[in-house]
Specification:
The protein contains 15 helices and 17 strands. The protein is of the alpha+beta class and about 475 residues long. It has three domains: about 80 residues, Winged helix-like DNA-binding domain superfamily/Winged helix DNA-binding domain (Arc Repressor Mutant, subunit A, Orthogonal Bundle); about 120 residues, Aspartate Aminotransferase, domain 1; about 240 residues, Aspartate Aminotransferase, domain 2, CATH 3.40.640. It is elongated. The N terminus is likely disordered.
Length: about 475
Amino acid sequence: MYQWGMTSLLPLGLDRSTKTSLTEQIYVGIGAAIGSGVLSPGARLPSWRDLAAQLGVARGTVRAAYERLQDAQLIVSSRSAGTRVANRPQTVAAAPKVAEPHDALPEAYRDVSPGPGIFQMGSPALDVFPATLFARIRTRTVRAETVGPSSYPDPRGETQLRREVAAHLAISRSIECLPSQVIITAGYTGALGLALHVLRLAGRSAWVEDPGFPLARRALQIAQMETIPVPVDDEGMDVACGLRHAPGAALAVVTPGQQAPLGPTMSLVRRLSLLDWATQTGAWIIEDDYLGELQLRGRAAPALASLDRTGRVIHIGSFSKTLSPTLRLGFVVVPPALAPLFEEAATCLAPAPGAAVQQATAEFMHEGHYLRHLRRMKRVYAVRRDALKTCLEPLGLPAHLAGLAMLLKLPMEVSDTQIAREAAAFGLAPSPLSIWYSDPERRQSGLLLGVTTAPGNRLAASCDRLQQLIEKFS
């Protein structure tokens, strides 16, 4: 124990056998006493000369510790008042936290993408992806990035990748755009966030598909927009319904290529009606082309943006379903008039992901590997779709194709969320249909079974287990 002033006592032990310097030990010890309240604001400390004598250390050692405490604004020193503890706000001890093995994902994200597991949606088949080839290309680009000049990359995205995306969209989605209209983003959500920031529609309303992607709906609400659920049928979003209930909406978020999660393609009549509404009212349309050309029934319809003649459609695409969601790589194609605003927002708030992964993807596309990979994926997924349907039907579980998933509808009294959460214990990751609805009156119960993650060697046993879980909760 050492006396501090006349009344304050503080335990301060110094360990000369440790590698930690004596200066550091004194600094940490006094700082801890101040932080815990043992030394209250205004308490007087001995001079560094007196403390050095009490501790039996060199004066310079204590002086250096005091200087660090002053730099940290923990103590103040003056000739008249001596050295005292600085006045600081009182700290309130936080309740001890219960240790967890890992940080849990947000609940909404967990329900939409519950995997990894069989039937997981949103992830391509790992056994189909040419991992060795892509890894070799990526290693080369990482090496080039490491030894190259050190500078900030283009926040809009690497020029080569933007050119490849523009060229690919012209062929596969019939979109005529310049590389200057393409902004590379951190996946779909990065593109959506960028668009919502640029459009600045807080306080306005937006049409959303019902059922529709829950995270997109939540993103609009975070952007302080009112979401207007618009029902979906075999022709996609019911535009006439949107016109009846909210003609003054400022935005529509749609998945016209393959509606998420039900799967129909938006009819040409409704596409033209949607574009006409946007043109006449000055509204914007965000096209979520989440599956691109991965159409398992015939040829994919052209993108909605290919019909846009007045610059009202913002087209968003992603490499998550075609390459890997771990790349966190997407893109947004913006009307020419909005390009400067998107460039500025990307530069200041949301620059493109790392250059190496962009360059690897660009090279993968330029050498023709991407198109070959897409063709192979479609063949493999069609086989898995048929195999899954064949396994489900004898079990009394009829399902129909919904994009890259099979939709298995359940009676409303059956909790699809309970089944989905229980299935995780068996390595299954179906997505509950009910969470995709925003209007309780339209809500339906069902399970979305991802086709891409339904390998044949465990398919029959997985379907049997799924039937048992459905019977358990029926």
